[in-house]
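Duplicate of earlier report; Adenosine deaminase domain-containing protein input re-posted below.
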Amino acid sequence: MNVMEESGLLVEKLEETLKHIKKLSMRTYLKFLPKIELHAHLNGSLNDKILKELGCEEDSIMQYKKLTQSIDKSDNTLQECFDVFKIAQNATKTQESVYLATKSVIEDFVRDGVVYLELRTTPRSEINMSKEEYIESVIRGIESLSGSKEKIFVKLILSIDRRHDKKTSEESLKIILKMREKYPNIIKGIDFSGNPNAGEFDAALFEEARKNGLKTSIHCAEIQNDDETKRILEFGPDRIGHATYLHPLYGGSQENWDLYCKKKIPVECCLTSNVVCGTSQSFPEHHIQEWINGSLPFSINTDDKGVFSTSLSREYQLVQRHFKLTGSNLWQISYDAIDYSFASAKEKEKMQYYLLQWLYLCHDMIYKKVDPNIDDDFCEGIADGFWNKLHMLEQQ
Ligand SMILES: [Zn+2]
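Output:
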């Protein structure tokens, strides 16, 4: 099927879907909007259903989601946030469970209207699974659902854990590079993540990764640490995650901010994650507004949609609501994120064309039905059904 046929199908399906609908919520519009997710950790993105299928007890599932119960008070600590990831790790200790978990996460993103996804995960070994086998299992999940015949492209970023010592990190990099040779179209980048209170950024290690053709996305300034933030900015990754304490109004140093403004590195913003973990005070006080006001490069992301009970359309809605953005502003944010992605030039072109087609053919059709007074979840199922149907048609 060529792109024009695809666009025709899109309009046809959309007309049919919207025929009897008079009004839509903003949230439903945002589910229809094709979106780009650049910052999603596999183990933090599992939904309740898959956790249950993988044998997780009800108590542990409650624990996995408990952080979001105190979102308004935001009295969680980063340590508590990192502790809950162990629950998902305990549920994915075999190759089959890693494969099923990966598939389930991708399916969730498809239902939410995500057309391009970069998943990230730290390779780990278990009693019956080596780090290579762990990576292979994730890739098997990705290969079963991603590609030009599907409605989503999925790429993989492999992470170096901040808690690991130099030797372990170097060994991890070796494995990552070896696996990348085997799967160059899927493994695209390397990340530095984990509890920001542990370890420190090793520029030489990431320089080695970069020399070998990996893109770099580094969690940066999640806590106040001007010294490390400076070293990360000087290294100049392709993207940085969070950047919470970078702007001087949010606890960063003027020196680092000046350096950032020179480099203009795209930031992966994750609103719910920051507010739930207490590193941002509230949604209206989130640092994303400095990027919006200053026309600096950023994307909107979920971080851990399972742990934080969120979705990418919900994150878009938070930005829309708290910073008064229009439908076309949100479309532009999604469109710009394509450029910041680690997709190939050809894939970027295809996605940009798809989003432009969507803007010309579908945007107005949906947006004119949006009524700001309607409940958030009203009609959300319509968009779910739309993406599911389109997905199935594409596979025929
Ligand atoms: Zn993250």
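The radius of gyration is 20 Å.

Merging into the original ticket.
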